[in-house]
Amino acid sequence: MSDSIAITTPLTDDVIERLKPGDHVSISGVIYTARDAAHKRLLEMAERGEQLPLELSGQIVYYVGPTPPRPGMVIGSAGPTTAMRLDPYTPRMLELGLKGIIGKGGRGAAVRQAIASNHAVYFIAVGGTGALLNRHIKKAEVIAFEDLGTEAIRRLEVEGFPAIVVNDCRGGDLLEEGRKQFRTSDRPIPAGQAAGG
Amino acid sequence: MREIPAAAITDAIAKLAVEATHYLPADVEGAIRAARATEKSPLAVQVIDEILENAEIARERMLPLCQDTGTAVVHVELGQEVHVSGGYVVDAINEGIRRGYAEGYLRKSIAARPFSARTNTGDNTPGVIHFEIVPGDELKLMFMPKGGGCENMSRYQNFLPGMGRKAVIDFVCETVDLAGGNPCPPLIIGVGIGGTAEKAMTIAKHALFRPVGSRHGDAEAAELEDELFAAVNALGVGPQAVGGTTTALDVFVETHPTHITSLPVAVSMQCHSARTRQAVL
Question: What is the ipTM of this complex?
Answer without folding.
Answer: 0.95
